[in-house]
Design a protein that fits this description.
The complex is a heterodimer of chains A (348) and B (566). By secondary structure, chain A is an alpha+beta fold. Chain A is 27% helix and 33% strand. Chain B is globular. The chains are: A alpha+beta (348), B mainly alpha (566). Bound molecules: adenosine-5'-triphosphate and magnesium ion.
Chain lengths: 348, 566
């Protein structure tokens, strides 16, 4: 197993950079997600990893071996990678088994070994009874699993997945997420997974690279991204929360309840530090008014099954989101305690 | 009943009537032919069909038709697929020009193609004489042979293969190729194992079209085969009609039936095959996969350009050279070069000019009439249930799908006697050719209009209807302006095809009613190849200009209307 290194890679289409100075160090066997809004360059980055696009600047290395740089380009077929395409890309002229076995044929495997490995891959994704069908006779989820089996069948160094679940319905997505996780556990391959769905990335990946307009914004584990986002943009992209200005702390610092509440009570002119407050860290005191508590008014309430989401307006005019176990009337005054916050970098 | 409703039902009836008349007219020639050839079956072994089937010449011509068309199809397949694969799938430069030049032979009339190749080879070739490479007098013209005919048929129909294959390559999702490459397939393996199998349908369709079009081709086997007595089915009919006149009409009807069946069988076979090899392709097919040619790019470009030089440029140069010499066999030098032939064609008001005028009139009027019919016809057809729609379209397509001689024989049968009720005699007049053109080229004009109409958002018309526009108003004020480019392109295509047409008019012309195609053919037969070359050069210039016009119009047309733009 070899680690994958992306070293300040830039890709320009004409003048316009689709990916700009992106650097990532991916450990062997890691499950990595590229996350970002539509058009931020995720697919372009993935296609550069696969070798379908050349680089404008920078270098991609696998282990010690240079895969691509400005001068050098290893063809896709010689990279020992596998890819699951958004449209599955099953060859319509071959049966399911032939589709899965094609990479083996290219590696000159035949006879008993060939049949065994195809059967193994198909049974892993639960499609053994469908081996002789043509891909057109399968449902969307089954096609997706054939594409996955095709990746499994060889031992690729890196598996690339481009929004593999985007075409599927919600139930199927949940079960496919499970198959990806199992797939990763079993193969121990390095996985690079492109998605614009943050919950998918959070659920699956060991580490997430958040991209925006071709640039890397943050590269961290899901927990870190959630608890310690670097900028307000990342914070708003991942999970829910509110931004408040506080007269305390500095960027990348966690604020405890006391400091946070003190900072919020200061004069407006001194409150310059943006702080992220997650809704689960807001306590709503609907009865007794404690002296340190903030005052807020309920603007609207949404029922989410296990809890209610309260959209609150503070006296300073800032909006705040909180969770509560019971519904509260709109317009009602409540007292609030903010138990912790995370100081963000100011937006550049 | 409200006025609005009465209005719309009157409009429906008128359009329906028009449609029924047109569909019936499209079917009449084939029915008449069937009647004629099957009508005499009661006479047993004396019936025309039986006599034709027993004649040795029929089977010989049939075999030669199959041989030349089959060989031509193979040549078209090689040429067409080479260009389609390279131009569609690789990063070669100058694609637009390569496509335009490759498509040109399809639009140049076959008799001009034949003439230009005849001027390129053989002992009398002015080009070879001018560069001092002519073979000695008396050596045979290599093109007067089955293989010569097949070669030119192949070159003429190669663009059909190109188009069919290019269409299916453009719809090949890029991911299918990429998935194979990342699985470890080298470029050659991707071609063999993915691209060829998936685009098999396009290849089959192109091959079948090339075969059918070669089978019906008249100009090439007429110019290259008749001088040495090598007859294929269409030239056999022509030769019989020319020597025996309408007396052998019944037998000719039977012969025509034979070619017609052959062509239709080809169409049926093609559709059956296509159905078997059609895949539901999924994925993004916006941009085809660009194979990088790398250091081969120069070589591949050179190969394509060389091929174009051989199949297009060299014959055309030979044609131009031949039109500039004072007489056949004189080499071209600074002293001998002359524009006399062009003076003769344009300056004198002789038979040459008359033929040009006839063809321009015929083509222009046919284009105009068909443009007028196409919009209401397409409009009504679109509102038919899909089943009926495809049946009506097949009927309209029939006169174009059948070889031109078949239609010509049917038209003679239909009009050799004055039309009953109105007592108008069309036989022996330009009117006969005109009617035949209307039948044959209707589908050419209809197709782009129907394609444009299918793409039109129905809400545009509905909005006008809510605003109070009646049906004629909507047709004229909303649909017509939006479809005008498609309609115009259809008319232009009809003009392009009709002005060069030879097959139908070869059988239908009479003294004083020659067409441009017949003129070139007759001039060459009469040994006036310098004049024939001059007329041909003018024809090629006209074709190229019209094609350029269509290219300029292309951005405003529905996809696929201009055949040489993908
Ligand atoms: N072949 C190309 N030529 C020109 N521009 C391109 C090309 N491919 C992508 N781009 C541009 O590069 C940018 C990034 O595109 P990319 O497909 O990588 O986005 P993405 O993050 O995958 O978006 P999505 O989530 O919508 O798939 C876009 O602005 C796109 O328009
Ligand atoms: Mg994408």
């Amino acid at each position: 197993m070899a680690g994958l290194t992306i070293d300040s890679v830039t890709k320009c289409f004409g003048e316009h950079p689709a990916v700009e100075a992106l650097s990532l160090d991916i450990a062997p066997g890691e499950f990595v997600a590229l996350l970002g809004p539509s058009g931020c360059g995720k697919t372009t980055m993935l296609r550069m990893l696969a070798g379908f696009e050349s680089l404008s600047e920078g270098e991609i290395r696998l282990g010690g071996r240079i895969l691509a740089s400005r001068e050098h380009h290893v063809a896709p077929e010689r990279r020992n990678m596998a890819m699951v395409f958004q449209s599955y890309a099953l060859w319509p002229n071959m049966s399911v088994a032939d589709n899965v076995g094609y990479p083996l044929k290219l590696r000159r495997l035949a006879g008993e070994t060939y049949r065994r490995r195809v059967a193994q891959a198909l049974s892993l994704v639960g499609l053994s009874p469908y081996a002789e069908r043509s891909p057109q006779e399968l449902s969307g989820g089954q096609r997706q699993r054939v594409a996955l089996a095709r990746c499994l069948v060889t031992d690729p160094d890196v598996v690339l997945l481009d929004e593999p679940l985007a075409n599927l319905d919600r139930h199927l997505r949940a079960s496919m997420e499970q198959s990806f996780r199992e797939f990763h556990r079993r193969t121990q391959a390095t996985l690079v997974y492109v998605t614009h769905d943050q919950s998918e990335a959070m659920a699956l990946a060991d580490r997430i690279a958040v991209m925006r307009e071709g640039r890397l914004v943050q590269w961290a584990t899901p927990e870190t991204l959630y608890r310690q986002p670097r900028t307000a943009w990342v914070a708003s992209f991942i999970g829910q929360g509110s931004l408040l200005n506080v007269a305390a702390g500095r960027p990348d610092q966690r604020l405890e309840e006391a400091m946070l509440m003190r900072g919020l009570a200061s004069a407006p002119a001194e409150r310059t530090q943006p702080v992220l407050v997650r809704p689960e860290h807001v306590t709503v005191l609907s009865d007794a008014l404690s002296p340190q508590a903030l005052c807020g008014r309920v603007e609207s309430v949404t029922f989410r099954g296990e809890r209610y989401e309260l959209y609150l307006r503070l006296e300073s005019g800032e909006a705040l989101l909180a969770y509560h176990h019971a519904a509260l009337d709109e317009g009602r005054q409540v007292a609030l305690i903010l138990r912790e916050g995370w100081c963000l970098e100011p937006e550049t | 009943m409200t006025p609005g409703l009465a209005d719309s039902s009157q409009h429906r009836w008128l359009l329906t009537l028009l449609m029924l008349v047109i569909v019936a007219l499209s079917l009449v020639p084939s029915l008449r032919l069937l009647m004629e050839s099957l009508g005499g079956l009661g006479q047993g072994s004396e019936s025309p069909l039986w006599r034709v089937l027993q004649a040795e010449s029929t089977w010989r011509a049939l075999w030669r038709s199959l041989y030349t068309s089959g060989l031509g199809m193979l040549i078209a397949l090689v040429l067409g697929s080479l260009f389609a694969f390279v131009i569609t799938l690789t990063d070669i430069r100058g694609k637009a020009w390569l496509v335009f030049c490759f498509m040109l032979p399809m639009m140049i009339p076959p008799q001009v193609t034949a003439l230009s190749w005849l001027q390129l080879f053989g002992p009398a070739s002015p080009l070879l004489k001018s560069i001092g490479m002519a073979p000695p007098l008396g050596s045979p013209q290599p093109l007067y042979s089955a293989e010569g005919i097949a070669l030119l048929l192949g070159i003429q129909s190669a663009p059909l293969v190109f188009l069919a294959l290019r269409t299916s390559l453009l719809s090949l999702p890029r991911e299918l190729v990429e998935a194979a490459r990342i699985s470890g397939a080298r470029q050659a393996q991707v071609w063999r194992q993915i691209i060829l199998p998936v685009t098999r349908g396009g290849l089959i369709a192109g091959a079948a079209m090339a075969f059918i079009s070669s089978l019906g081709n008249f100009g090439i086997p007429a110019m290259l085969g008749i001088p040495v007595g090598y007859y294929v089915l269409p030239t056999l009919i022509y030769q019989r009609m020319a020597s025996f006149g309408t007396g052998v009409l019944a037998e000719m009807a039977s012969l025509s039936l034979l070619i017609g069946m052959l062509a239709l069988a080809g169409v049926a076979l093609q559709q059956a095959w296509m159905k078997r090899s059609r895949f539901g392709l999924m994925g993004h097919s916006g941009r085809a996969h660009d194979f990088s040619l790398g250091r081969w790019r120069g070589g591949v470009t050179a190969l394509l350009v060389t091929l174009l030089l051989v199949i297009l440029v060299a014959p055309l140069v030979a044609l131009v050279v031949s039109s500039l010499v004072p007489a056949v066999g004189v080499p071209l030098t600074w002293e001998t070069v002359t524009l006399n032939a062009y003076h003769e064609v344009i300056g004198r008001q002789g038979a040459t000019w008359r033929a040009v005028r006839n063809s321009l009139w015929l083509a222009g009027c046919a284009a105009l009439v068909l443009m007028l019919c196409s919009l209401p016809l397409a409009y009504r057809l679109q509102r038919l249930p899909p089943r009926w729609q495809s049946l009506a379209l097949s009927a309209i397509e029939l006169p174009y799908a059948l070889p031109g001689v078949v239609l010509a024989v049917a038209c003679i049968l239909l009009f050799v006697r004055p039309i009953p009720v109105i007592d108008v005699a069309l036989y022996g007049t330009l009117g006969l050719i005109f009617v035949a053109y209307l039948m044959r080229f209707l589908v050419v004009c209809l197709k782009p209009v129907a394609a444009g109409l299918a793409q039109l958002d129905p809400s545009l018309e509905e909005a006008a209807q809510l605003a109070g526009a009646g049906p004629w108003r909507r047709l004229g004020g909303i649909v017509l302006p939006l479809l005008a480019p498609a309609l115009f392109a259809g008319g232009l295509l009809v003009f392009l095809l009709a002005v060069n047409e030879l097959t139908v008019s070869a059988l239908l012309w009479s003294a004083g009613n020659e067409t441009l195609g017949v003129l070139i053919f007759n001039l060459d037969e009469g040994g006036e190849s310098v004049l024939a070359a001059a007329v041909s050069v003018l024809v090629v210039l006209m074709v190229a200009t019209l094609m350029l016009c269509l290219s300029l119009l292309a951005p405003r047309l529905p996809k696929g209307v201009v055949p040489w733009q993908g």
